[in-house]
Specification:
With 322 residues, this protein is α+β, with helices and mostly antiparallel strands. The protein has 2 domains: 206 residues, Sandwich (Jelly Rolls); 100 residues, Arc Repressor Mutant, subunit A (Orthogonal Bundle). Helix content is 41%, strand content 22%. The chain has 11 helices and 12 strands. The protein has a 7-stranded antiparallel β-sheet. A 5-stranded antiparallel β-sheet has the order 2-5-10-7-8, covered by helices on one side. Helix 9 runs antiparallel to helix 10. InterPro entries: AraC-bd_2 (IPR035418), AraC_XylS_family_regulators (IPR050204), Homeodomain-like_sf (IPR009057), HTH_AraC (IPR018060), HTH_AraC-typ_CS (IPR018062), Tscrpt_reg_AraC-type_HTH (IPR020449).
Length: 322
């Protein structure tokens, strides 16, 4: 078994004491960034990297206390799993003290500032933004209401965090051992990449977690048409007859299908879709619309009813959404 101390050792791309050389090598595989030494006279950078089709695995240490400012990552998410040492991460306005007990997950459209301690060494999973979006779309079974945004702190002591860490380490070990080839022709690699993306979505809290928990297995053609119609038109005034017409079936037959497969009526499903989308927009931390604007945009014409329904579904008022 490959130990964590030697993860991806066979895929070393850089060993240097020159910080500028390290910045250039990392920037080539990630994005441009500022890298500044905060203490010490010499760095001792070791960088291992392997790239798949949609994901890359990386082990990186600087051997010095450094400040890293990448701004917005833009095209990828970055899961950082400290194997030793610690770091301070500021992302989405939140400060996370990373350690082997606490990792971070950086979103592509929010700025980041980091300070890595001298003994900080991380396993990092870089996942393409477009790939994660596609996997999320497939898992939900419908159009995403906007970009996926994760909470930045990953609890590596809890069951979900341990599961994500274990899979990431297993992936690195499998590639190091040659069990999986880092080529797009390897179906095992493609399956592993998807498994990493799905696990990230399932284990780490995000603004679509509530949608993932309520994935539906819609086997009926009529029911599938109805669900697609509701998800595409939830913001409009919709009646049961509208849904039945879109599904090309009598409304009583449609009600029976919803009860049998989804354990709810078509109108309750519509209400839940409206509320889920409202919560998605309420979770935005920048340029968020008012509660009343979001309610109206999601198909509610009565703010009091929206607040009541929202509390019934999520256990708190819309204004308390964080």
């Amino acid at each position: 078994m490959v130990s964590r101390d030697t993860l991806l050792k066979g895929h070393n791309v850089l060993q240097t004491r020159e910080l500028d050389e390290a910045r250039a090598a990392v920037a080539e595989r990630y994005c441009d960034h500022q890298l500044t030494m905060l203490s010490g006279r010499d760095a001792k950078v070791v960088y291992n990297h392997v790239r798949g089709e949609h994901i890359s695995l990386n082990v990186l240490e600087y051997g010095a206390e450094v400040a890293i400012n990448p701004g917005e990552l833009q095209n990828f998410y970055l899961l950082q799993l400290p194997l030793s040492g610690g770091a301070k991460i500021i992302h989405r306005g939140e400060e996370v003290h990373a350690s082997p007990q606490s990792g971070t997950l950086l979103n592509p459209d929010r700025p980041t500032d980091m300070i890595w301690q001298r003994d900080c060494r991380k396993l990092m999973v870089q996942i393409d933004r477009a790939f994660l979006k596609q996997v999320a779309y497939e898992e939900i079974g419908g159009t995403l209401p906007g970009p996926v945004r994760f909470d930045p702190k990953v609890d590596l002591k809890g069951q979900s965090g341990r599961r994500l860490l274990a899979l990431s380490v297993t992936a690195a070990r499998a590639i190091e051992a040659g069990d999986i080839l880092s080529t797009s022709q390897d179906l095992n690699l493609l399956a592993l990449e998807r498994q990493l993306a799905v696990t990230m979505l399932e284990t780490q809290r995000s603004n679509i977690s509530h949608l993932l928990k309520e994935r539906t297995d819609v086997s009926s053609t009529h029911l599938r048409r109805a669900v697609e119609f509701i998800r595409a038109n939830y913001y409009d005034t919709i009646t049961l007859e509208d849904i039945a017409q879109a599904a090309q079936v009598h409304h009583r037959t449609l009600q029976t299908a919803f009860r049998e497969q989804l354990q709810m009526s078509p109108m309750l499903f519509l209400r839940n879709v409206r509320l889920d989308n409202a919560r998605f927009h309420l979770l935005q931390r920048h340029n968020r619309a008012s509660v009343s604007e979001i309610a109206y945009d999601c198909g509610y014409s009565h703010l009091g009813r929206f607040s009541r329904d929202f509390r019934d579904r999520f256990g708190h008022a819309p204004s308390q959404t964080r």
